[in-house]
Design goal:
452 residues; mainly beta; Methylamine Dehydrogenase, Chain H; 4-stranded antiparallel sheet; 4 helices; 35% strand; elongated; WD repeat; WD40_CDC20-Fz; cell cycle; CDC20/Fizzy WD40 domain-containing protein; anaphase-promoting complex binding
């Protein structure tokens, strides 16, 4: 039903009524001081004169009375006056000025179009990932700023150096504590957090392969999501709790966010570090203010977003618009939603047709990459904000649960339940190569307390 049907018909009739009287007729009493000669009447008089009296004069000249002679003279003068002014100029009109030189007048103006980027349809590299846990609620892949990829396979965390193409083992967790349920690089690209099935979080130095400390007491169940905000490590657990941990101090718990009723499976800090987005198995997305977390009180969310109808794990903050957040729903939802996190408004919803497992923004173009589950197990590249599909990348034979982006923003690594790790050159090459950011060990240098 068209809600605007009635107003449309009424406005149409109004339009027709107005079109009948496009101009307002002025009163006949206006401008009485102007004299406008009735040229048409004079022309008819002259024509009549030419057809009758003029011919008579030529055939049989008859002397006219002085009154008729005067009238004849007036008609002739009036005719000459009117005819002489029609389409006449005292001076020659000026030549038209050309806006463009003649040689360019016929040539169309050409706009330099940006060449379309070639998007390879197959992965450029595929690595085996045996014992990769096929669990939608975990986060087992991360790519640090030092260009080292961390992946958890069962109880072991492996490091793959993308620069050298070499693989090393960081740690194997014992059976009582494992398996590994989440991994996340610190901003310095050297230290890494490892969430465990036994509710603990371990911090490791990847350069020396040494464990620095263990964070305990924050959760009562496995830690499936991790997110760094400078020296604050935020952890999300199966118990629905979100904990802020300051890794520089002995009593590391400095804030708690409570709002999820089930497992927290997605955590992402905004680029500014002012807002935290969390997604849970309760189909909820929360937006939290970083300044409101407190150890001794329950922190209330800034926005509680309940539009999804399935678990929300995929979260991605837009790199070119600070208050824009993209979220993806699970198998019963299958949508990507966009949010204004200043006011909590849902800006757009796209039905992808399949489970949304992960989301990544292109750092160099306005594009969004999503990874999916059944039935195609594909990666889909979208143009933002039109959300037109630019490419669909296939190759995985099971749902693509995890994605990570290289530091330069060009390559994407994807890990799936088929126990393979694939690398895609989906985001192309940046227009201008930016110098690599220097590692910043400040959150750990001389401040981290070594506690097992």
């Amino acid at each position: 039903m068209d809600a605007g049907g009635g107003s449309l018909s009424s406005s149409s009739s109004t339009l027709k009524t107005r079109s009948r009287f496009p101009l307002h007729r002025k009163s006949s009493r206006e401008n009485l001081d102007r004299f406008i000669p009735n040229r048409s009447a004079m022309d008819f008089d002259y024509a009549h004169y030419m057809l009758t009296e003029g011919r008579k004069c030529k055939e049989s000249p008859i002397s006219l009375s002085p009154a008729r002679e005067a009238y004849k003279k007036l008609l002739a003068e009036t005719f000459n006056m009117n005819r002489g002014r029609i389409l006449a100029f005292k001076n020659k009109p000026p030549a038209p000025v050309e806006k463009f030189p003649c040689e360019f007048a016929s040539a169309p103006v050409e706009r330099a179009e940006k060449p379309k980027r070639h998007i390879p349809q197959s992965s450029e590299r595929t690595l085996d990932a045996p014992e990769l846990v096929d669990n939608f609620y975990l986060n087992l892949l991360d790519w640090g700023c030092s260009n080292v990829l961390a992946i958890a396979l069962g109880n072991t965390v492996f490091l793959w150096d993308a620069t050298e193409g070499s693989t090393s083992e960081l740690v194997t967790i014992d059976e009582e504590s494992g398996p590994v349920t989440s991994v996340s690089w610190a901003p310095d690209g050297r230290h890494i957090a490892i969430g465990l099935n036994n509710s603990e979080v371990q911090l490791w130095d990847s350069a020396s392969n040494k464990q620095l400390r263990t964070l305990k007491g924050g959760h009562r169940a496995l830690v499936g999501s991790l997110a760094w905000n400078n020296h604050i490590l935020t952890t999300g657990g199966m118990d629905g709790r979100i904990i802020n941990n300051d890794v520089r101090i002995r009593s590391h718990i400095v804030g708690t966010y409570k709002g999820h009723e089930q497992e927290v499976c997605g955590l992402k800090w905004s680029g500014s570090g002012q807002q935290l987005a969390s997604g849970g198995n309760d189909n909820l997305v929360h937006i939290w203010d970083s300044s409101t977390a407190s150890t001794n009180s329950i922190t209330r969310w800034l926005h509680r977003l309940s539009n999804h109808t399935s678990a929300v794990k995929a979260l991605a903050w837009c790199p070119f618009q600070s208050n824009l957040l993209a979220t993806g729903g699970g198998g019963s939802d299958r949508t990507i939603k966009f949010w204004n996190t200043h006011n909590g408004a849902c800006l757009n919803t796209i039905d992808t047709g399949s489970q949304v497992c992960a989301l990544l923004w292109n750092k160099n173009e306005r594009e969004l990459l999503s990874s999916h589950g059944f039935t195609q197990n594909q990666l889909t590249l979208w143009k933002y904000p039109s959300m037109v599909k630019m490419a669909e990348l296939t190759g995985h034979t099971s749902r693509v649960l995890y994605m990570a982006q290289s530091p330069d923003g060009c390559t994407v690594a994807s890990a799936a339940g088929d126990e393979t790790l694939r690398f895609w050159n989906v985001f192309g090459v940046p227009e201008a190569a930016k110098p690599a950011a220097k590692a910043n060990p400040e959150p750990f240098s001389g401040h981290l307390i070594h506690i097992r």
